[in-house]
Amino acid sequence: MASVTIPAAADFHVHLRDGKMMETVVPTVRQGGVSIAYVMPNLVPPITSVDMALAYHARLQALDPSVVFLMTLYLSPAITPEVIVAAAATGKIAGVKSYPQGVTTNSDAGVVDYESFYPVFAAMEEHDLVLNLHGESPSRPDNDITILNAEESFLPTLLDLHKRFPKLRIVLEHCTTAAAVEAVKKCGPNVAATITAHHLYLTVDQWAGQPHHFCKPVAKLPSDRQALLEAATSGNPKFFLGTDSAPHPRGAKEGSSCAAGVFTQPYAVQYVATAFDREGKLDKLRAFVCEFGRAFYKTVEKGWEKEENVRRDGIVLEKDPGVEVVREIGQGDLKIVPFKAGEKVWGLRWL
Amino acid sequence: MASVTIPAAADFHVHLRDGKMMETVVPTVRQGGVSIAYVMPNLVPPITSVDMALAYHARLQALDPSVVFLMTLYLSPAITPEVIVAAAATGKIAGVKSYPQGVTTNSDAGVVDYESFYPVFAAMEEHDLVLNLHGESPSRPDNDITILNAEESFLPTLLDLHKRFPKLRIVLEHCTTAAAVEAVKKCGPNVAATITAHHLYLTVDQWAGQPHHFCKPVAKLPSDRQALLEAATSGNPKFFLGTDSAPHPRGAKEGSSCAAGVFTQPYAVQYVATAFDREGKLDKLRAFVCEFGRAFYKTVEKGWEKEENVRRDGIVLEKDPGVEVVREIGQGDLKIVPFKAGEKVWGLRWL
Fold first, then answer.
1. Which of A61, A284, B172, B330 has a 20 to 30 Å separation from B107 between CA atoms?
2. Does the annotation count B15 as an active-site position?
3. Contact B211/A at CB under 8 A
């Protein structure tokens, strides 16, 4: 199969930033084959109110009205059950994102203790908002918890939250380990996981000394990568695309320290298609990038998309001749290096 | 103990490079409290003959005649038993360094298969040269061997070589794991290990996203760091200082890819003193930085140093007021960022 025609993809984890960076990145959403994008709230300051989310939504929609932007709030003490009720009523906010404090880009305002948010989670359960978990424990040298086992040591928290709030839809974001895949499989159907494009390629060996491959959670072992590839191509609806595309200016990646994040937005579906092709699993591409995420988030049921539009708005992926990923996008101080810059991936065009 | 007076230190693993970089780095050897330095051979091209080693030795000695430079050859097919005989006769070459192919800076010419070198090892045993092992297996994704377990998966090779050549003195260079410490302890007295200054500080969390902390072997877990601290401060003569100080121009560290290496030469003993002080083990500093390495390499017995000179040529380390590590050393394209730039460490002066 050297060509695949599928509906426009859904990307359930994107970082679109704000200001000039947002203006650079938003046009790349459709370039990557995506028509609905779930937008992370870790701006500076973070999106901790309905008004902030709606204003951010308006700024995004103004830049590309052809994309559906779904919003998520940044879990913090400002998020109360009343905020959940108001958020659900907007019809534009689909969930709440929890960052453990200090584990990734702009997570300083993140969560220390989940228990204090149980009333919020109960309200989310009632009003059918999704809980997005950045599933990493903060590093603790005394307990040998590092970025390598931060995800695995978070899994008991995932299981505990699922047990306490069985009707709460939970997404373990950008899962990176075989252990996480197994944990998600064992949960009920209300627990799913996003898998990024770049974690289908990378292991620890590829981000060591390679700033443009460094992200949080870090890529783990070859066996973990294999587990992600198998989950993504398995046809299990618990696993769907969330690229965690995270643009940083070149200067923030290449310098005396390196910001965490891999930028995949402009080629999102192309990277996935290329990886699925290598696995001989192109027949599973449509489910992973188009269907399972939309079903979990109920995008049609909730009126965010019309099914006929999704189908009409299709994309064609072609192996040959393929395309070479550009060396950078953007201008001036905001030049961003995309994943696999200069390498060959499948081509993409809109129908 | 806020002040320690000890003999000049011995650093049994240094990278001094060549050309202008050598001219920048050699003067920092004594700055770091070191009077004898064991010089790694991974130049471009590598030091694979006695003549090359002697010429390199002369270039180094010309830059600082007050330092004793001991040389090691780069293990490759050019190193034959005859070369070993000639090397031992020079009185300037103390060993042979083995790099597994492709695992670190300038290791392209490294070893694929140890068996073909058994005759060389036998000659080294006979002529009392030291085998320096860069103890990492090349990564193998199919076997889940990555930079994280590359050292541990090399240990059977160390044990095998020790068993085959029990009289061969072997140094497992820059050991980074609790497993390596245990393996070296279990071997006979002819097997020792160097420990760097920076591995007394770093874990995987500190080199992720921090190019100036990235080296090979990479720093591992907090429990591994603790094992290194314990080995270094244990008074066990199998463990001694080899900084693996590895200068790279700032541009090679901060860019679209990052060279492996941490530059510690100008503050070598100061970093170690600062770490030992935190552990409350300053009483073990002298043994670790001055005595155990010299004894293993037989520096006095072989006439490379006179014991009375070593003792006279002492250094004083002082906690207060301490010094702030400079932001960079060198000029133009050869600016190098030292470990802990801008941070406070113990001060050092020569007697």
1. B330
2. yes
3. yes
Please give the DSSP secondary-structure letter assigned to residue B202: -
Active-site residue A134, yes or no? yes
Secondary structure (DSSP) of B38-105: EE----SS---SHHHHHHHHHHHHHH-TTSEEEEEEE-STT--HHHHHHHHHHSSEEEEEE-BTTSST
- Shortest distance, CA A333 to any CA of chain B (angstroms): 15
Tell me the C-alpha to C-alpha distance, in Å, between residue A176 and each of A16, A149, A287, B10: 22, 10, 20, 44
For A312, counting Cβ atoms within 10 Å of its Cβ (0-12 exposed, 13-18 middle, 19+ buried), the class is: exposed
A:B CB pairs within 8 Å: 75
Mean pLDDT of chain B: 96
Q: In this predicted model, what pLDDT tens digit does every residue of B164-204 receive, in sequence order? A: 999 999 999 999 999 999 999 999 999 999 999 999 999 99
Q: Which of B142, B147, B254 sits opposite A208 (nearest CB)?
A: B147
A208 touches chain B (CB under 8 A): yes
pLDDT tens digit string along A213-239? Answer: 999 999 999 999 999 999 999 999 999
Active-site pick, B11, B13, B216, B220: B13
Domain chopping of chain B, boundaries: 9-300
The mean predicted confidence, pLDDT, of chain A is 96
Beta carbons of B258 and A223 less than 8 Å apart = no
Shortest Cα–Cα distance, A211 to chain B (Å): 6
Are the beta carbons of A203 and B148 separated by less than 8 Å?
A: no
Instruction: Report, as an integer, the average pLDDT of A273-287.
Output: 98
Burial of B150 (0-12, 13-18, 19+ CB in 10 A): buried
Q: What is the pTM of this model?
A: 0.96
> How many Å lie between the alpha carbon of A339 and the closest alpha carbon of chain B?
12
Interhelix angle A268-278/A222-232, rounded to 10 degrees, is 100
Q: With 70 as the cut, is the pLDDT of residue A137 above it?
A: yes
CA distance B93 to B57: 9
- Average pLDDT in the B112-117 region? 90
Long-range contacts of B318-326 (CB under 8 A, 24+ apart): B318/B2, B318/B3, B318/B346, B318/B347, B318/B348, B318/B349, B319/B2, B319/B3, B319/B277, B319/B346, B319/B347, B320/B2, B321/B347, B322/B346, B322/B347, B323/B267, B323/B270, B323/B347, B323/B348, B325/B267, B326/B266
Domain B9-300 has CATH 3.20.20.140: yes
B contacts of A214 (beta carbons < 8 Å): 208-209
At A344 the three-state DSSP class reads: strand
For residue A287, the model assigns a pLDDT of 98
- Residue-wise pLDDT for A24-62, tens only, equals 999 999 999 999 999 999 999 999 999 999 999 999 999
Question: Rg (Cα) of chain A, in Å, rounded?
Answer: 19
